Structure formats: structure tokens, C-alpha cells
Amino acid sequence: MMSKTTTALATFAALGVLAGAAHAEIRLGVSVSATGPAAFLGDPEAKTIEMLVEQLNEEGGINGEEIALTLYDDGGDPNKARTFATRLVEDDEVVAIIGGSTTGTTMSILSVAEDEGIPFISLAGAISIIDPVREFVFKTPHTDRMACEKIFTDMQAQGITKIGMISGTDGFGASMQAQCKEVAGEHGIEILADETYGPQDADMTPQLTRIRNTDGVQAVLNPGFGQGPAIVTRNVAQLGFEIPLYQSHGVASDAFIELAGADAAEGLRLPGTALLIADKLAEDDAQYDVVTTYTEAYKARYDQDVSTFGGYAHDAFALIVDAITRAGDSEDPQAIRDALEATDGLVGTTGTYSFSPEDHLGLDLSAFRMLEIKDGDWLAVD
């Protein structure tokens, strides 16, 4: 009997076995932050989707129908994201939407998707995107709550029970701060110091000094994304901290190491995906084929390394393609939504997705890899 587990690679490849030329179009909408302060998220997302659409269309599309992609750059502005989402539905008549590089833009898009009955796959991290479950909203990144749980599990293994936390006040940072506070006690973690910083802050030494001067702190946790965590990492090194620093999956990319500086980031830990250790995966790893294929294709196309964030877009596209293929009707958003919710065992770059009416993320903690920066590279430590 064949396994129900499907890789994104196999999904794309299977669609190439089609008879005749594509005779119709499947309208797919995308709104990501390809420019602006969240461009480090949206740029690889946009490039990934453009590449995958081109590849799929060259292979014959889905059941003989090519993907017609409409991609907007919202610049990280929630108001623009809402405008583009409305345009995608009303003017471009898309049957599904991928996007929301940030929590803020995602919340704008999902309100339109829910109102209009269009399946939407978010690329942002906050748990509030899929909890409570919304009928038409799914997402590919692990939640911030899961990141807290993965980090605290690692801290427990290191004998760490008392921490200081410094969080960004952006949507993601604030959400993860709240989630970490909520689950800390379940893991035997006590938060002795709780500091924050704004998106434009360029020096966090006052907050970090207060954490350093708090008796009993054994580690520092920094929920946040963008330039803030890089500044925190540099400031921690400058202040001579001798305790571990943990970051979130919101900065899980090679670009973060470059921005923070390899020396400052040495020894830092965070939960990440298989993409960051693609060259270190064993060939029998369940994600080996999909991660290797995507990594090689992206590098060949753009002469750039892949990022976790591009991987989120890769998985969203794979999920949409798989759902449309199974839905049997590429023009019915409801049928596509229903097929999405029935996804079972699709292996992506982020993990293996199995949705249900109660779960529109479809990942568990096993999809996270605890990583450490060593000599300017990523090393799996679990």
C-alpha cells in the first residue's frame, strides 16, 4: 500500500505528466513585503513563488491549466495589504491567496479572505492567525507559541530555569512575548526580567544592562524580528554577557548572522527549519529531497542562498497546488479550501503538514530543529 505522505517535490513532479498544452488559467494571488523594513522576509518569498509558478507552468500546470500569478508588494504596510487583498478578490478574481509576510499584513489580508470566502495561506508566525481557527485561513510557519515551547524545552535540558526576556514591540515580538509568558511556567521557567524595545531603536544596552544586573538570570531570550535582534546580539557581546542568548525563528536566516556578526552571534541558539542545515541533512531524512531540490533550484535561479522565509512560501505554494489538484475544480474557492483542510502528510521545507478542522497549521514541535551558530554557520543540536 502506498504511503499517504507526499513531498512537495513529488507533488510538482507528478503534475508534469499531463496531456496536451495548458488551455486555461488558475488565478493565484500573492501579497508580500518584497520591499520595505520586512523585505528580508518578502523578497525571498516573492522570488520563490515566481520561480515555482514558472517551473510548474513549464511542466504543464495543474491538470492542463497554467497558474496565472498576480503578485503585489505591500511594503509591510497593513493598509496596502488590505487594499491589495481586496483587489485580488474583486478585480483579479483569484481563487486563493498566499502572503502576509508579517503578522500585521496577514491580519489585514485574512479579514478580506474570510469575508469573501477565499482560501488564504499566511507566511507569518503569530499564533493568533490560526487560533482560533478561521474557516479560510491557514499558515505555514511554526507559531510563536511553539517557538517558546521549543526554546524552553532546550533550556530545561541545559538546567536553565530563570531568564531575562527582551522583546520587540512589533506584532510578532509582542505576540511571542505574550505566548512565552503564558507557557513558561509549564516548563519550569521563571522570567525574572522583562524588557522591550521599539522597531527603530538602535541601542538596547540600557535594557540589557538591567537584565544583567538582575540576580539569578541564567539566559536571555529575545522574541523579535528585523534589525532589533541583531542589535541585541551585538549589544550582548559588547556587554560581555557570559550566559546563553536565545533568539526566535523570526530571524532564522544566514542574513541574520551577517547582520549581527559571526563573532557576536557565536553560540546563540534558536529554533529553525531543515533549510538552514540543508547541506548537513542525512539522505534518509524525510525532508532531504524537498529541501535539496528547492535549495539547488533557488541558488541556480537567483545566485542566492535560500532562507527560512522563502521556505514558508515554497510550502504555501506546494499546499495550494496539492489542494487544487485534489479539489477537482480549480475555479471553486470553497472546494480548494476543503481540500486544503484535508491535507495529510505533505512534506515541505518547514515540516510535514496535516491539517484538520481543528488545526490550520498542521505542524508539531518535531518540525522544529534546535540550532546553534558555530563558526558563522548553523549546527543542529537536537
Automatic annotation (TrEMBL):
Domain Leucine-binding protein: 25-362
The keyword Signal is assigned to this record: yes
Segment forming the signal sequence: 1-24
Keywords from the named record: Amino-acid transport, Signal, Transport
GO biological process, one term: amino acid transport
InterPro entries: BCAA_transport, Leu-bd, Leu_Ile_Val-bd, Peripla_BP_I
Gene3D superfamilies on file: 3.40.50.2300
Annotated family: Belongs to the leucine-binding protein family.
Protein name: Branched-chain amino acid transport system substrate-binding protein
Organism: Salipiger thiooxidans
